[in-house]
Specification:
Elements (H helix, E strand, L loop, with lengths): L1 H4 L3 H9 L15 H18 L3 E6 L4 E4 L1 H7 L4 H4 L4 H8 L3 H17 L3 E5 L3 E2 L5 E2 L1 E9 L5 E10 L1 H51 L5 H32 L8 E4 H18 L3 E5 L7 E4 L1 H17 L5 E8 L8 E8 L33 H11 L3 E7 L3 E9 L19 E4 L3 H11 L4 E4 L4 H10 L6 E5 L7 H10 L7 E6 L4 H10 L1 E6 L4 H17 L1
Parallel strand pairs: 9-11, 15-16, 15-17, 17-18, 18-19
Antiparallel strand pairs: 1-2, 1-7, 3-6, 4-5, 6-7, 8-10, 11-12, 12-14, 13-14
């Protein structure tokens, strides 16, 4: 301090002249050594405070001496006075730093003090600011040396690279997604190539075989043609799925809401796929209650594609039993109702941990009982996207060894109230259903919408008839399923015809597709009409109505 007092005015003016922007050039300005030092220190502190990034310096004990405004803001401090004297531990406590971040600062700073050499471009672990935002810094620290080259402290600058880290993370994610997409593309091409080649080889190979072997008997030809037809169906399904997927991913799949007959669509799709079910000896049922309006507002073609996928899958993955396509109106929620359409099967079922997996593109499940997988793994992902684009929801319930139910729910937009087709029949019309499949019989009864509909099976049929005879009741119609376990159809018809109370009852056969000659044989046995499964409700009621009308004319 005594040295400062000995600095004369001439020297002070010389020092002041080096900083003309902070000292006045007026000859009247009084210069005091303390004023000169204070102004120069304040000047440099202001420069440091305005510097970008975080600037800070410590003594050789790593005790804080100063910093710029950015450091204060990060720690939530108001002045340099609050910063001076802090250790790294103190700062970590104030700033709630993770342990790894504190250790990084301490280790690198101690190394600079020990070696007297700077450390540059250090990527620090995450440090939160006073608001909890995660920050990342790129730091450099160098030693402060005295005149004797002795290390008396360190100065550091840390540049905020949070946005850079974020961009790097986004680029990594984009790269991973691109790699996944590329792998998916490769896998897709591999799967599609295989799925195209297999049926194409079957079609071309078997067609060539047929052309070169005219001596084949009818059964052999039929077997080969069936394989060709199956291969052609697989090709059609594959092409349809690929086209749908490409349109959906390109955003070019156009949706056309319109009024259409939902019952007709459900019955059309089910009827078209029924032959595939019957080839595997599966039953396929439609449960469309009479109290749901036929006229529905949505995209008819979309719903048709959804049903084709779901029913087609059910047939593929079911070896025995039946498939049920059910339509129901769910309870109103906030004055809005939904229409739920489900496809249930009696297949092997899906493990619970695979239920989400099946909706991803190209994913296929093979379980212990399956000898092969089917298709490209596109169907369900396409269905899900179609349903969501229609404003609906899609889900699945499954139990191993029992079967699966795939369902989708759409906003219920009925265009008009339903005039029930069953009202064509007199209310007192009495019908007996003879069917060994109780569920199928119950569905038929519900669709008929009449009060006097009884159900029996081939074991109980005579007991039922005896009970009705005792109360002197007869039936206008007897609907007979062609797959009775306990009795041949011819024997059943013969016994029924002997019952005097059934003399006027009309027998209706409900069978899987049969040849015309077989149909004629059934009519000779005594059946008034032969209806083909899966039976359309409108067709059944119309047949019954026409029979009633013919009877009244007679």
């Amino acid at each position: 301090m005594s040295a400062l007092k000995n600095i004369d005015l001439k020297m002070l003016k010389k020092i002041a002249s080096l900083y003309p922007h902070i000292f006045s050039t007026s000859p009247t300005e009084s210069l005091d050594i303390h004023l000169v030092v204070e102004k120069i220190v304040a000047y440099y502190e202001e420069i440091i405070s305005c510097m970008p990034g975080n600037v800070y310096w410590f003594d050789n004990k790593l005790v804080a001496l100063g910093c710029n405004a950015n450091v204060l803001n990060m720690l939530g401090l108001k002045s340099i006075k609050e910063f001076r004297g802090l250790s790294f531990n103190d700062m970590a406590k104030i700033g709630n730093w993770p342990g790894i971040s504190l250790q990084s600062f301490k280790t690198d700073s101690k190394e600079v003090l020990r070696t007297g050499k700077g450390k540059f471009n250090i990527e620090e672990p995450m440090i939160p600011d006073s608001f909890g935002k995660e920050l990342y810094f790129l730091s450099s620290r160098v030693p402060i040396l005295d005149r004797n080259e002795k290390v008396i402290g360190i100065v550091g600058i840390s540049v905020d690279i949070t946005e850079r880290k974020k961009m790097e993370a986004e680029l990594r994610l984009a790269k991973e997604k691109a790699e996944i997409a590329n792998n998916a593309k490769t896998e897709f091409l591999s799967i599609v190539t295989h799925e195209l080649r297999t049926p194409l080889n079957a079609v071309t190979g078997l067609t060539d075989y047929l052309l070169r072997h005219n001596e084949l008997d009818l059964e052999k030809r039929k077997s080969i043609l069936t394989t060709i037809q199956s291969s052609a169906n697989n090709l059609t399904e594959l092409v349809d799925n690929i086209l749908d997927l490409s349109k959906l991913e390109a955003g070019k799949f156009t949706f056309y809401p319109q009024t259409f007959n939902l019952r007709a669509i459900v019955e059309e799709v089910t009827g078209g796929l029924a032959i595939l079910a019957y080839q595997k000896h599966l039953d396929i049922l439609v449960d469309f209650p009479g109290d749901i309006a036929d006229q529905f507002v949505s995209d008819a073609q979309c719903i048709k594609r959804i049903l084709q996928n779901l029913i087609g899958n059910a047939i593929k993955f079911t070896q025995t039993g039946q498939i049920i396509v059910a339509v129901e109106k769910t309870k109103a929620l906030r004055k809005k109702s939904s229409l739920k359409i489900s496809v249930s099967d009696t297949g092997e079922g899906i493990p619970k941990d695979k239920l989400d997996f099946i909706f991803e593109k190209f994913n296929q499940i093979r379980t212990s009982a399956m000898t092969k997988t089917y298709g490209t793994g596109l169907g369900l992902s396409i269905v899900k996207e179609l349903v969501e684009n229609l404003g609906g929801t899609f889900g699945v319930e499954s139990e191993l060894g029992v079967g699966s139910t795939f369902w989708f729910s759409l906003p219920y937009q009925a265009k008009s109230s339903l005039v029930r087709k069953a009202s064509l029949l007199p209310e007192q019309t009495r019908i007996l259903i003879i069917d060994d499949n109780l569920q199928r019989a119950k569905i038929m009864r519900k669709q008929l919408g009449l009060k006097a509909v009884d159900i029996t099976n081939s074991k109980q049929v005579f007991k039922t008839l005896l009970e009705q005879l005792l109360v002197r009741k007869t039936y206008d119609f007897i609907l007979v399923d062609d797959e009775l376990e306990e009795m041949a159809l011819a024997k059943l018809v013969k016994i029924l015809k002997k019952q005097t109370q059934l003399a006027t009852s009309k027998l209706i056969l409900i069978s899987k597709p049969i040849k015309y000659t077989e149909k004629q044989r059934m009519q000779k046995l005594g059946f008034t009409k032969c209806l083909t499964k899966p039976m359309q409700t409108s067709e059944l009621i119309l047949v019954l109505y026409n029979c009633v009308q013919e009877g009244s004319k007679g």
